[in-house]
Amino acid sequence: MIFLRQLGSRSCHLFSFSDYVNLDEISLALDPPRRCDYAFVSHGHSDHVARHPAGLASPATVALVQRRYKSSGLTPLDFGETRLRGNHRLWLVPAGHVLGAAQLVVDRPDGRRLIYTGDFSMRPRLTVPAATPVQTDVLIMECTYGSPRYVFPPDDEICARIRFFVERALDDGVTPVLLGYSLGKAQEAMALINRLGYPVIVHPTIAELADVYQRFGVEIGSYQVLNGPVSPGHVLIAPPSARRDRLPAHCRTLYLSGWALDHSTVYRLGVDEAVPLSDHADFSELIRFVEAVQPSHIYTTHGPPSFADYLRRLGFNAQPLGEHQLALL
Ligand SMILES: [Zn+2]
Predict the structure, then answer these.
(1) Domain of residue 242, residue span
(2) Are residues 138 and 207 in the same domain?
(3) Ligand 1: centre distance to CA 101 (Å)
(4) Residue 233 C-alpha to ligand 1 middle, in angstroms?
């Protein structure tokens, strides 16, 4: 599909999209899933990272990528600093997703601004501040939970449900196991469980990344690394990929994900319970973010194409990114 929007003689090439956004004018690939000559990596989740020879990311993301891949060609760009690429000015603002997650702000030489959110959230959490909305002309945004049925409960309620799960499991004499991605969700769970006053044991892959969190000054509390049987009274935090037969024999599992709002999640994943602790924006946050940013053009990605319909009904000029798309302004 070719998309063309022209404003008289001021028409300019913004970006192309295949399975990732490419700012062709300055040869900058945004979160490409495979090796590119020069890339912006918004955060350290594996579907956003590849072995690029050069590129930029926040210092924490560079550290997380180095920890996972042992090396990285990325150059750190701190929040508040700027970098020139061609005659475009690049800077980063927090995305509120996981440690180091950043939105990329591109100030073009024609005075127009483009922002690429990467994964983001508007809720401040224990380990990550909320995303910073910055006004822009063009917004390329993720919309994972871009359907009205995905509205998360208040943080207090989520915390209470996790506490209830842990208390009940311990009362029943079984090990409570919280399952969450080893980057981001697990560290948030560590901070939360520490705050609730229970001793924490984590899977080694989680500990490795928790170490980076602590190096960047994030308080996640104390923890032990799993190395044998789990002592009674402890809460185990493990990645969802942890095999059931590697978990304690007498345990109860709680899956931490926004997808917990889908009733099928518990059965689909074979877990005992699920709670919608998420590091993505829910539907209401997505709308709130767009209203704060006030873009003249919106391109949505990583979510239901129908989210763009909701935005259009609110009066925004929005469309989902399609394959082989060329965006001109
Ligand atoms: Zn992510």
Answers:
(1) 155-275
(2) no
(3) 8
(4) 31
What is the band of 68 on the pLDDT scale with cuts at 50, 70, 90? Answer: confident
pLDDT, residue 241, reads: 85
Got the DSSP string for 219-269?
A: -----EE--SSPPTT-EEEE-TTS-GGGS-SSEEEEEESGGGGSTTHHHHH
Between the CA of 227 and the centroid of ligand 1 the distance, in Å, is 28
Distance 156 CA to ligand 1 centre (A): 23
Centre of ligand 1 to C-alpha 94, Å, is 13
Does residue 40 sit in the same domain as residue 81? Answer: yes
36 in a domain, yes or no?
A: yes
Determine the distance separating the centroid of ligand 1 and the alpha carbon of 57, expressed in angstroms: 14
Q: CA 325 → CA 99, 127, 134, 248, distances in Å?
A: 31, 36, 25, 49
- Tell me phi and psi for residue 65, to 5 degrees: -65, -40
Count structural domains, the chain.
2
Tens-place pLDDT, residues 120-161:
999 999 999 999 999 999 999 999 999 999 999 999 999 999
Residue at 165 is within a domain? yes
The amino acid at residue 163 is R
Q: What is the CATH number of the domain that holds 14?
A: 3.60.15.10
Q: How far is the CA of 66 from the centre of ligand 1 (A)?
A: 17
**What is the distance in A from the centroid of ligand 1 to the CA of 119?**
5
Claim to verify: residue 21 and residue 145 sit in the same structural domain: yes
- In tens, the pLDDT along 208-225 reads 999 999 999 999 999 999
How big is the CA angle at 152 (ends 147 and 153), to the nearest 5 degrees?
Answer: 145
Distance 137 CA to ligand 1 centre (A): 24
Percent above pLDDT 90 for the chain: 81
What token pair was written down for 49?
């990272």
> Does residue 3 belong to any structural domain of this protein?
no
The alpha carbon of 128 and the centre of ligand 1 are apart by a number of angstroms equal to 13
